Amino acid sequence: MGMMVLFALVVVALMAGYAWKSGHSLFGRSSTSGASQELTAIAANIQGHYSQEGSFAGVTTATEISNGDIDASYVSGGTVDTPYGGTIVVSGPASLNGGTNNAVGLTVNNMSQEQCIDLATAEAAYGINSGTTVAAGVNAANSPATDAEAETICTAAQGNELTFTYTLSD
Predict the structure, then answer these.
(1) Could you give the CA distance from residue 13 to residue 43 in angstroms, rounded to a whole number?
(2) Which burial class, exposed, middle or buried, applies to 128 when counting CB atoms under 10 A from its CB (0-12, 13-18, 19+)?
(3) CB 92 within 8 A of CB 100
(4) pTM (2 decimals)?
(5) CA trace torsion 156, 161, 163, 164 (10° rounding)
(6) What is the pLDDT of residue 132?
(7) What are the pLDDT digits (tens) for 143-156?
(8) Which of 2, 13, 34, 149 is the most exposed place for a label (fewest CB within 10 A)?
(9) Is the per-residue pLDDT at 1 higher than 80?
(10) Domains of the chain, each with CATH number or no CATH
(11) Alpha-carbon gap, residue 66 to 94, rounded angstroms
(12) pLDDT value of residue 36
């Protein structure tokens, strides 16, 4: 009888260990997915707002918070927080391909290497833009970075940063 109890405890311990390990990994992916969705929502709101004006002139993190282009649920103390503890900074305007103030960057920072690679290769982060620039032009196509590209730009164990550039033409 004692052996059966011991066996049952070992099985439960193994299952709990597996669940904890899987849950821990899934939590990390879930937070990166949340960051990707947050980035996509912010980009869509900013593009919608400024496409009516025809220019990204005046765009900053503070103006986008105050005019409601960035949902208040993402904001804490004047910064735009991500689900994993980083921030999103609105950087721009920029002038691309002969245009004037026709682009804006969203910089996501303070990511672990795994989070950075997951976000760089996430389809959702690219859903509404053309001319995406990830980490100073490593991937300038309208597509997620490949695993190889992401590994070349997400090299730090912690503190990685990606910039996604969105244009008015979308």
Answers:
(1) 45
(2) middle
(3) no
(4) 0.72
(5) 80
(6) 43
(7) 677 788 788 888 88
(8) 2
(9) no
(10) 2-167 (3.30.1690.10)
(11) 21
(12) 80
